[in-house]
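[Meeting: bench + compute handoff]

Bench side (C.D.) handed over the final construct sequence. Compute side (W.E.) agreed to return the predicted structure before the next meeting so the bench team could plan truncations. Sequence as handed over:
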Amino acid sequence: RSKMASPQTYPLNSLEQTEDLKAFERRLMEYVASLGPSTGRCRIILIVVSVCTATGAWGWLLDPRTSQSLWNHPFFTLSCIVLVGLFLAGIHKRVVAPSIIAQRCRTVLADYNMSCDDTGKLILKPRPANT
């Protein structure tokens, strides 16, 4: 049996609830914002490597010796290896990390008639009508 107090045991007054929500919103926004720089860098890296791979593929496909060997096209071969390595390292997860965090928060906050935007700002929804 859990020793944590249930919400009914220690009710918070309206001011405490407001302060808690503001603190949660502030922390969520800070966390999502802290992911921004690394996400931006990962996006740039992924775009550059993808463009290099596409450029190398274009040259490889236009070469009449295409069927001989990929070693005749080291730029394409290297950029493909780097692209595969980046995906194996999880760069695709880092690129979409802020939206994953926001979506998971939306799922949890839905139980409390709240949501959040992609920056972490809370959105209060109207209370459902009692039936």
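W.E. noted at the follow-up: The first strand starts at residue 114 and ends at 116. C.D. will use this when planning the next construct.
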